[in-house]
Amino acid sequence: MPTRSALHELNRRLGWAFPALAALAFGIFRLPELTRSPLWYDELFSLGVADLPIGDSLRRIIADHTNPPLFYLLLKGWMAVGGESDHWVRLLPCLFAMLFGAALVWLAREARAGGQAGLLGVALAAASPLSVDLSNEVRGYSLLALLACLSLAATLHDRTHRTRGTFALLTGINIALVHTHYFGWLTVAAACLTALLAWPRDDARRVLRSALYTLLAFVPWAAAVLAHAVQNPAPLRNVAWITPPDIADPLWLVRDLTGRSGSAAVDLAWLALLGVALVSLAVTAVRRLQAPGTAPKAPLARPLAAGPTPGSVALLAVAGFAMPAAVWAVSLATGHSVWVQRYLIGAAAPVALLAGIAVSAMPPRRWRFSAVVGFVWVAVACAALPQRAPVKFDWRRFARRIDLAAGSPRDVFALEAFTAAPLQRYALTGMRVQMVHALAELPSGDIWLVYRRQSFSSGSPAEALRDLGFTTVSSLAAETAGQQFVATRIRR
User: How far is CA 227 from CA 219, 222, 240, in A?
Assistant: First the structure.
């Protein structure tokens, strides 16, 4: 049997392989899902923005008010290399997601999580259905998760090494993070809050100074967006669709970031075990800090046995749990909801790693059982991925249904860009798809109309069409995950 020193030497020599293996594990569950669902409107918006000249592209992003420009610019370069096919454009965010697996290994090492906790954390993140879905969406979410993980790892790395290079690395990652998504500021804020409350003063100064430089780099973009918003009569129209969260939404976020079996009872049992483990970890940390004669010189600076320092645990807890909880509380208290589960994907790394640490830190007589339960949970969650309910509308199938039913006419009019853009991309040969903004723009003749039921919050589209002189010949309808679309053959 190899000695402990031999195992340590093997681990040192093969240390480079663990990030690669983590990236491979993430790819195993993401690459097969690459084109399971067709592109939807938000993804086609990304392609449209990236396809513009860079000046027009930046102006369009500013006018949209919802995302900073980094992902769009990277996508622009990616499309210049390989084109606009579904496989190619989806591959870019999927690669970011695979790199997220490698970044999580770095974060586990910087947090001194230990091999068992790190392995379980990587497994939980790989099994996350939310992460898998967003990994194959042509939006900035997988890049947000990657950069948020790198930001936390770089924060801990700079705290340990304290060099100009580590500080520059942290600041550069943070600048990229906040230029990827506005919710990237939650990760920066988590580091600042943790440093102020739990770290030595010198460490806190470095974190705050990096955040200040990040803010200064962000000011030009923020000023451009603010200037456009002031001139716009409805600057928040693009986020008007966000609904207030439910009481249990934070709980479901944790579930979706660590795996989902499809059974509510099993999911609740897993969350109960995880909750016990997290409470046990918190109690252990507090007791160690309050033990007489063992108080550290700086708050939360002493290791938990041979595991992570309480300072690292605090950073993971604030980034993974406190920041989403703050978003949830603000959304409930103010009436202006900003709770969107996919916007909180930056919490994926700290939630998964802290879950691994908590389960691994349970009392020794329970650890083996808890670890087995954790890995069985991961296996169940991963196995359930291909069978989970579809999360996007299948525009390919809907276009085929219209084509089979159409015969003549071949003219299809789609109400609003949300419907027209994907239908135009997946229209079959001979199908002429055009967009209209209102029913009054429809021409006379024998045509098809495609619309969202949500576009008619009041009144009946059938009545509106009758008022315009149309008669309904036939109708098709389809619904997926709350997205309802109707294709109606009408004649005037």
Answer: 12, 8, 20
Dihedral sign of CA atoms 253, 256, 257, 258 in order? positive
Alpha helices, DSSP H only, in 111-183?
115-127, 129-135, 141-161, 164-178
The arrangement of strands across the sheet holding 483-491 comes to: 432-436, 411-415, 446-452, 483-491, 471-480
In order of 116, 232, 289, 364, 418, the CA distances from 109 in angstroms are 12, 47, 23, 22, 44
Task: Check: CB of residue 182 under 8 Å from CB of residue 222.
Answer: no
Q: Tell me: the pLDDT tens digits for 389-435?
A: 556 788 888 888 888 886 666 789 998 888 999 999 998 888 889 99
Residue 483: its pLDDT value, please?
A: 77
- Rounded CA gap, 76 and 55, in Å? 12
CA dist 329 and 338 (Å) reads 10
pTM higher than the cut 0.85: yes
> In the predicted model, what is the mean pLDDT of residues 235-257?
85
Give 170-176's long-range contacts (Cβ < 8 A, gap of 24+): 170/210, 171/210, 171/213, 171/214, 173/147, 174/210, 174/211, 174/214, 175/213, 175/214, 175/217, 175/218, 176/70, 176/147
273's CB contacts (< 8 A; 6+ apart) are: 359, 370, 373
Q: Which ranges constitute the DSSP H helices of 233-384? A: 249-258, 264-290, 310-317, 323-334, 348-360, 364-384
| SS3 assignment, position 485 | strand
Find, among 20, 102, 179, the residue nearest to 349 by Cα: 102
What separation in angstroms does the CA of 113 have from each of 26, 91, 165, 252, 352?
A: 20, 31, 24, 25, 12
Give the count of beta carbons closer than 10 Å to the beta carbon of residue 482: 8
Coil, strand, or helix at residue 473?
strand
Report the distance separating Cα 47 and Cα 42, nearest Å. 9
**Of 159, 56, 73, whose CA–CA distance to 112 is shortest?**
159
